[in-house]
Amino acid sequence: MPPKGRIEVNEKYCKACGLCVEECPQEVIGLAANRINAKGYHPAELINAGCTGCGICAIVCPEAAIAVYREIAKVKEPGA
Amino acid sequence: MDMLGEETIVYERPATLTDLSSHYCPGCTHGIAHRLAAEVLDEMNFRERTIGVASVGCSVFAYNYFNFDFVQAPHGRAPAMATGVKRVLPDRIVFTYQGDGDLASIGMGEIVAAAARGENITVIFINNANYGMTGGQMAPTTLPGQVTTSSPTGRDIEVAGFPIRVSEMLSSLDGAAYVVRRSLHDPKNIRLAKKAIRAAFEVQARGLGFSMVELLSTCPTNWGMTPVDAIHWLETKMLPYYPVGDYKVGPAVAEIKI
């Protein structure tokens, strides 16, 4: 099982440049089509399940708008 | 989205950035450069003793976005001002943040002299091949044939000469300890850029002399492209002319392990 992750986009900063959408290896980020933020941009958001919390969207984000979280994998019992 | 079980933070906004939304255009890689500098200063725990020197250009408002002291230099004179700040307050970490119109054009004298003196400052140099703030005019770094608002038929090298490769030029000076070029066009190169910025601040912290990191950057608005197209243009057009690499790594600098 790949690790599970999620992102939180701070919509105050997002300018919908789309670099995270372009670079996301899982292709699970999109621009929200039906809402805009205070500056009038369609902010980025997770549109599908499958985020692994790799953090590439945060690395390419020019606005430092993305926080990335990853679930801590359960350690298998020895001998299990 | 569903909340996860117990989770770990992979990435969050660095504390050295203020909570202001930047004035940069969507997709402008100035924001990435700001973020990398902030991350490095956080990691090195230098925030409380750092003084930045803002240049003239789009990066003139850098002082709004970093949560430490900043001064604003006249056009091109950031290395001279940083020299003064560093000599008066030698225990501080002093860096300039300059674009190519500022550093490579009007400020060429100051940057060459500061590097030649081996001034113990760090320079972050953003090369986006035009003057961003004033509307995309031709800069010393504009590529041959590149269309800008002041070269509407493309840069004519017969009239305007050839672009200047600043890193290569400064690397010939004995005073320069660490001069490298990096690019901000993909995750791998952004990581390498961060490492270079870290090395540059290490050089200054150890008093080894002048350090500069040149960052190839995009200017989607003035290039007339979408942010994603601008990234591809940087990769296909700028990288061949401005190869990334380490142009000067002094012997004492080479021993730094990061």
List the helices and strands and how they pair.
The complex is a heterodimer of chains A (80) and B (258).
Chain A: E1 5-9, H1 19-23, E2 29-31, E3 44-46, H2 56-60, E4 66-71
Antiparallel strand pairs in A: 1-4, 2-3
Chain B: E1 7-11, H1 30-43, E2 50-54, H2 62-65, E3 69-72, H3 78-88, E4 93-99, H4 100-106, H5 108-116, E5 122-127, H6 157-160, H7 166-170, E6 176-183, H8 187-205, E7 210-216, H9 220-223, H10 227-241, E8 245-249, H11 251-254
Helix pairs in contact in B: 1-8, 4-5
Structure commentary:
The complex is a heterodimer of chains A (80) and B (258). Chain A has one domain: Alpha-Beta Plaits (2-Layer Sandwich). With 80 residues, chain A is α+β, with helices and mostly antiparallel strands. Chain A is 12% helix and 21% strand. The two termini of chain A are 17 Å apart. In chain A, the strands form two sheets. A two-stranded antiparallel sheet of chain A has the order 1-4. Chain A has a two-stranded antiparallel ribbon with strand order 2-3. Chain B has 258 residues and is an alpha/beta fold. Chain B has a single domain (30-254), classed as 3-Layer(aba) Sandwich (Rossmann fold). Chain B is built from eleven helices and eight strands. A seven-stranded mixed sheet of chain B has the order 3-2-4-5-7-6-8, sandwiched between helices. In chain B, strand 2 (50-54), helix 2 (62-65) and strand 3 (69-72) form a beta-alpha-beta unit. In chain B, helix 1 packs across helix 8 and helix 4 crosses helix 5 (108-116). Classes of the chains: A alpha+beta (80), B alpha/beta (258). Chain A binds chain B through residues 4-6, 10, 12-13, 15-19, 22-23, 39, 41, 46, 51, 53-56, 58-72, and chain B through 1-14, 17, 21-22, 24-32, 34-35, 38, 186-187, 190-191, 220, 226-228, 231. Strand 4 of chain A pairs antiparallel with strand 1 (7-11) of chain B, so a sheet runs across the interface.
Distance between the first and last residues' Cα of chain A: 17 Å
Return the CATH class of chain B. Alpha Beta
Q: Which CATH architecture of chain B would you pick? A: 3-Layer(aba) Sandwich
- Structural class by secondary-structure content of chain B: alpha/beta
* Strands side by side in the biggest sheet of chain B: 3-2-4-5-7-6-8
